[in-house]
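Supplementary notes for students who missed Thursday's class. We covered one full example, reproduced here. Read the sequence, then the structure, then the short commentary at the end.
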Amino acid sequence: MTERLSREELAARLADLPQDRRSIVAVAGSPGAGKSTLAEWLVGELDRLRPGAAAVLPMDGFHFDDIVLEARGDRPRKGAPHTFDTGGLAATLKRLVETLDADIAVPVFDRAIEIARAGARIIGPKVRTIVAEGNYLLLDDPAWAPLRESFDRTVMIDVPEAELRRRLTERWIGYGLSGEALEAKLEGNDFPNMRTVLTTSVAADYLVAD
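Structure (token representation):
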């Protein structure tokens, strides 16, 4: 059964995860829900208790490169579920769980150039709690379902659809989009992705309002 928590209550629950192994916490939510903000905040709270013992793993680092998306005709839908390397993400999660005695390099998405940078973040042996964050981590889809085998706890951020639409619209206006370009970005990609998350994600252990 899903339990509704404040973010402070969630941080307290995660602080009790075992430290003799590595735990993976999945933070999912629609585009615009505030996943990155919550994930970074959680890591900050956990680090106050055990400095250096928590780290963020962003799903966005596993975007297929634009070269691949262009070849497949998927560039306009970049950010949709099928534009991610779910196999690579699953392999990375497995490696993080099984390897505790070495540095592990993970990719990070560079929003300035809209490209994932390989090996842009190092997760060291001291890290015991990984906060994985991304839109589709709880998607009820054959390509995404295997990821859940690696999750010790799952979190869904609960934001009303109207608020998500407002945030997404403001985001792209902030990047200079307007008129037809703004409408194409929202109606052709962001809003469909939002609806996918809202309607086809499995229930999480915890629900957190933002």
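Commentary. The chain has a mean pLDDT of 94. The CA atoms of residues 86 and 142 lie 10 Å apart. If anything here is unclear, bring it to office hours.
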